[in-house]
Predict the 3D structure of the following.
Amino acid sequence: MVMNPADVGTRPDVRSTGWPDNITNEALYALGKQAIQEARGTEKHIHTRERWCGIAVPQTATVWADVASLVPYIAVTGAVVFGGAIQIIGTDDMPALTDHTRYDSHRILVTDMENVTPWIMRLIWGSGTVGDAEAAGQFSDIMIMATSPGPPIRPQGVPVDVLMPRLISGLDKLWAKVKNATNLDEIEFFIGTHEYDDPI
Protein backbone atom coordinates (compact mmCIF):
# COMPACT_ATOMS: atom_id res chain seq x y z
CA MET A 1 0.00 0.00 0.00
CA VAL A 2 1.44 3.37 -1.04
CA MET A 3 0.38 6.45 0.90
CA ASN A 4 0.76 10.15 0.35
CA PRO A 5 2.85 11.76 3.13
CA ALA A 6 0.13 14.37 3.54
CA ASP A 7 -2.26 11.62 4.59
CA VAL A 8 -0.12 10.54 7.53
CA GLY A 9 -0.92 12.27 10.80
CA THR A 10 0.73 11.89 14.17
CA ARG A 11 2.77 8.87 15.12
CA PRO A 12 0.42 5.97 15.95
CA ASP A 13 0.61 3.93 19.12
CA VAL A 14 1.88 0.67 17.68
CA ARG A 15 0.70 -1.23 20.75
CA SER A 16 -2.89 -0.57 19.69
CA THR A 17 -2.23 -2.18 16.29
CA GLY A 18 -1.23 -5.53 17.76
CA TRP A 19 2.51 -5.11 17.20
CA PRO A 20 4.19 -7.02 15.70
CA ASP A 21 1.59 -9.36 14.19
CA ASN A 22 -1.16 -6.97 13.17
CA ILE A 23 0.67 -3.71 12.49
CA THR A 24 -0.80 -1.91 9.49
CA ASN A 25 0.94 -0.46 6.46
CA GLU A 26 -0.23 2.95 7.60
CA ALA A 27 1.44 2.55 10.98
CA LEU A 28 4.67 1.29 9.41
CA TYR A 29 4.70 4.21 6.98
CA ALA A 30 4.11 6.71 9.77
CA LEU A 31 6.87 5.20 11.91
CA GLY A 32 9.29 5.21 8.98
CA LYS A 33 8.47 8.81 8.16
CA GLN A 34 8.97 9.82 11.79
CA ALA A 35 12.34 8.04 11.95
CA ILE A 36 13.52 9.78 8.78
CA GLN A 37 12.44 13.19 10.11
CA GLU A 38 14.22 12.65 13.41
CA ALA A 39 17.41 11.44 11.70
CA ARG A 40 17.32 14.45 9.38
CA GLY A 41 16.87 16.77 12.35
CA THR A 42 19.82 15.23 14.18
CA GLU A 43 22.02 15.47 11.09
CA LYS A 44 21.12 19.14 10.62
CA HIS A 45 21.91 19.85 14.28
CA ILE A 46 25.41 18.45 13.81
CA HIS A 47 26.13 20.01 10.41
CA THR A 48 24.28 23.31 10.49
CA ARG A 49 25.95 26.72 10.74
CA GLU A 50 27.04 28.02 14.14
CA ARG A 51 26.82 31.51 15.63
CA TRP A 52 28.26 32.78 18.92
CA CYS A 53 26.65 35.60 20.89
CA GLY A 54 27.65 38.03 23.59
CA ILE A 55 25.56 40.67 25.29
CA ALA A 56 24.05 43.51 23.26
CA VAL A 57 25.22 46.92 24.43
CA PRO A 58 22.80 48.33 25.28
CA GLN A 59 20.08 45.71 25.59
CA THR A 60 16.55 46.72 24.61
CA ALA A 61 13.17 45.13 25.31
CA THR A 62 13.62 42.76 22.36
CA VAL A 63 17.37 42.78 21.50
CA TRP A 64 19.48 41.04 24.14
CA ALA A 65 22.31 39.47 22.11
CA ASP A 66 25.02 40.59 19.72
CA VAL A 67 26.24 37.99 17.22
CA ALA A 68 30.05 37.65 17.01
CA SER A 69 30.43 39.94 20.02
CA LEU A 70 33.51 39.97 22.24
CA VAL A 71 31.53 41.35 25.19
CA PRO A 72 30.47 38.46 27.47
CA TYR A 73 27.31 37.98 29.45
CA ILE A 74 27.84 38.33 33.21
CA ALA A 75 25.70 36.40 35.70
CA VAL A 76 25.80 36.85 39.49
CA THR A 77 25.16 34.08 42.02
CA GLY A 78 23.37 34.15 45.33
CA ALA A 79 24.64 32.38 48.46
CA VAL A 80 24.07 28.72 47.55
CA VAL A 81 20.97 29.84 45.64
CA PHE A 82 20.45 31.01 42.09
CA GLY A 83 21.01 34.69 41.46
CA GLY A 84 18.74 36.79 39.30
CA ALA A 85 18.06 35.76 35.71
CA ILE A 86 19.82 37.71 32.96
CA GLN A 87 18.57 38.17 29.41
CA ILE A 88 20.37 36.08 26.76
CA ILE A 89 18.30 35.83 23.53
CA GLY A 90 15.43 38.26 22.85
CA THR A 91 12.59 38.07 20.36
CA ASP A 92 14.41 40.22 17.79
CA ASP A 93 17.73 38.35 18.07
CA MET A 94 16.60 35.30 16.10
CA PRO A 95 16.67 34.46 13.30
CA ALA A 96 20.23 35.60 12.70
CA LEU A 97 20.11 33.55 9.48
CA THR A 98 17.46 34.59 6.94
CA ASP A 99 14.41 32.31 6.65
CA HIS A 100 15.39 30.16 9.63
CA THR A 101 12.47 29.51 11.96
CA ARG A 102 13.98 27.64 14.93
CA TYR A 103 17.07 27.89 17.09
CA ASP A 104 18.71 26.32 20.10
CA SER A 105 21.65 27.03 22.35
CA HIS A 106 24.06 24.18 21.86
CA ARG A 107 27.13 25.29 23.84
CA ILE A 108 28.41 27.88 26.29
CA LEU A 109 31.97 29.13 26.73
CA VAL A 110 32.96 30.40 30.17
CA THR A 111 35.73 32.99 29.98
CA ASP A 112 36.04 34.10 33.61
CA MET A 113 34.81 33.13 37.08
CA GLU A 114 35.49 34.45 40.56
CA ASN A 115 36.07 31.17 42.40
CA VAL A 116 36.95 27.54 41.77
CA THR A 117 34.07 25.84 43.56
CA PRO A 118 31.32 24.21 41.45
CA TRP A 119 28.83 26.38 39.59
CA ILE A 120 25.42 25.53 38.15
CA MET A 121 24.19 27.52 35.19
CA ARG A 122 20.48 27.33 34.40
CA LEU A 123 19.26 28.20 30.90
CA ILE A 124 15.53 29.01 30.86
CA TRP A 125 13.36 29.41 27.77
CA GLY A 126 9.81 30.42 26.93
CA SER A 127 7.52 32.89 25.21
CA GLY A 128 6.20 34.47 28.44
CA THR A 129 7.98 35.53 31.60
CA VAL A 130 11.11 33.93 33.00
CA GLY A 131 9.24 33.06 36.20
CA ASP A 132 6.47 31.25 34.34
CA ALA A 133 8.97 29.39 32.15
CA GLU A 134 11.04 28.20 35.10
CA ALA A 135 7.93 27.14 37.03
CA ALA A 136 6.88 25.08 34.01
CA GLY A 137 10.23 23.25 34.02
CA GLN A 138 11.46 24.87 30.81
CA PHE A 139 15.14 24.89 31.69
CA SER A 140 18.39 22.94 31.52
CA ASP A 141 21.10 22.94 34.21
CA ILE A 142 24.80 22.78 33.34
CA MET A 143 27.64 22.07 35.80
CA ILE A 144 30.76 24.22 35.42
CA MET A 145 34.16 23.90 37.11
CA ALA A 146 37.48 25.72 36.87
CA THR A 147 40.44 23.74 35.54
CA SER A 148 43.02 25.53 37.71
CA PRO A 149 42.70 26.92 41.25
CA GLY A 150 44.93 29.87 40.36
CA PRO A 151 45.86 32.49 40.82
CA PRO A 152 44.61 33.33 38.34
CA ILE A 153 41.57 31.09 38.25
CA ARG A 154 41.27 29.29 34.90
CA PRO A 155 37.82 28.52 33.54
CA GLN A 156 37.32 25.38 31.50
CA GLY A 157 38.46 27.10 28.30
CA VAL A 158 36.46 24.81 26.02
CA PRO A 159 32.74 25.03 25.20
CA VAL A 160 30.33 23.11 27.42
CA ASP A 161 27.50 21.23 25.70
CA VAL A 162 23.88 22.25 26.32
CA LEU A 163 20.81 20.03 25.92
CA MET A 164 17.54 21.81 25.15
CA PRO A 165 14.66 21.70 22.64
CA ARG A 166 14.51 23.84 19.53
CA LEU A 167 12.85 27.19 20.15
CA ILE A 168 10.71 29.31 17.85
CA SER A 169 12.64 32.28 16.45
CA GLY A 170 10.98 35.61 17.19
CA LEU A 171 8.78 34.11 19.91
CA ASP A 172 10.81 32.15 22.46
CA LYS A 173 13.30 33.96 24.67
CA LEU A 174 16.30 32.64 26.59
CA TRP A 175 17.54 33.60 30.06
CA ALA A 176 20.35 32.41 32.33
CA LYS A 177 21.00 32.34 36.06
CA VAL A 178 23.82 30.83 38.12
CA LYS A 179 24.32 29.27 41.55
CA ASN A 180 27.52 29.05 43.61
CA ALA A 181 28.45 28.84 47.28
CA THR A 182 29.85 32.39 47.39
CA ASN A 183 27.29 35.19 47.39
CA LEU A 184 27.55 37.81 44.61
CA ASP A 185 30.42 36.14 42.75
CA GLU A 186 30.32 36.55 38.97
CA ILE A 187 30.82 34.33 35.95
CA GLU A 188 31.38 35.54 32.37
CA PHE A 189 30.39 33.56 29.29
CA PHE A 190 29.38 33.51 25.64
CA ILE A 191 26.63 31.37 24.13
CA GLY A 192 26.63 29.42 20.87
CA THR A 193 23.52 28.90 18.75
CA HIS A 194 22.33 26.69 15.92
CA GLU A 195 19.46 27.72 13.63
CA TYR A 196 17.12 25.60 11.52
CA ASP A 197 15.01 26.30 8.42
CA ASP A 198 12.33 23.71 9.20
CA PRO A 199 10.19 22.83 12.23
CA ILE A 200 11.69 19.36 12.79
User: Anything to note?
Assistant: Residues 25-47 form the longest helix (23 residues). The chain has two domains: 5-46, 49-196.
